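re: ur question from yesterday

yeah so i grabbed the chain u mentioned. its 294 aa long if i counted rite. heres the sequnce exactly as i have it in my notes:
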Amino acid sequence: MVKVTGGGRKIGAVAAHLAYISHQGELDLETDEGQRVSREGQKELLRSWHLELSAGQYRQPRAGRAGASGIKLVHNITLSMPAPTPPKAVLAAAKAFAREKFGAKHRYALALHTHQQHPHVHLVVKAEGIDGRRLHIDKAMLREWRQDFAQVMREQGIAANATPRSVRGQTKRGAKDVFYRTRRGGRSYALRDQIDVVKRELIATRTISDPARARLLETRKALIDGWNAVADKLDAQGEEVLGCYARYFAMHLPPVLTDRERLADEMLRRARAKKPDRTREDDRVRDRTLERTR
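ran it thru and got these structure tokens back, copy pasting raw so excuse formatting
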């Protein structure tokens, strides 16, 4: 997995993240120059990056964005593999990936974490390159990075492949995480507005309509057709058992839900949990009403 987890817009935030990925200095950071940086050396590392000179950070916010913060000074990236992948292999692959993508172009530092079941590397990359150009990360670039990281993992002797989340049957992050991020510090005004709109629609109509649902259904149909085609090829090769597994997987994919429907489901679950037992039959009726809209 290659995931962008954010990026500091102030030097203090960047320093705090470096302290976090180094476990407050218990782990040394490794830089793009191959140097090991202890806790005492982190301030000097930041000074050498000259983040205060990043072009554009003192630009006036655009119209309508008076409260907008400055530009990203760094990108925080996580490279991870599932257990029981050897941590040394993940670290070696992360170093190779970072050299290929950012070497001689962007300053960076990284640290390996093994305190969780899946070993992962935290990578902090300076957004402004040595040539003054900024690194802009989009979905296409992330897909390419995942494929490239899988390739360098295979070069370490580890079986790895990069497949879209939808093909694996995984959906977006749960609405519970959305509620958490909305509450945290009261900063996510866009998410708060989205939740308020869904709440008002539920109260007014007891249903949720979302134009995006039709596109998701088309994607799901294409996905199921693809897995069934794989099953047919496996059958033709005499791999009937694997073909059955592929069909079973396609038949048991999680339900299709848009972001708005996911928020509505979470709201109903929360409301049901807060109400006494005598009112939960009303909730079940509302759930069936919502299901009919899908």
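noticed a couple things. The longest helix spans residues 212-236. also The first strand starts at residue 2 and ends at 6.
anyway ttyl
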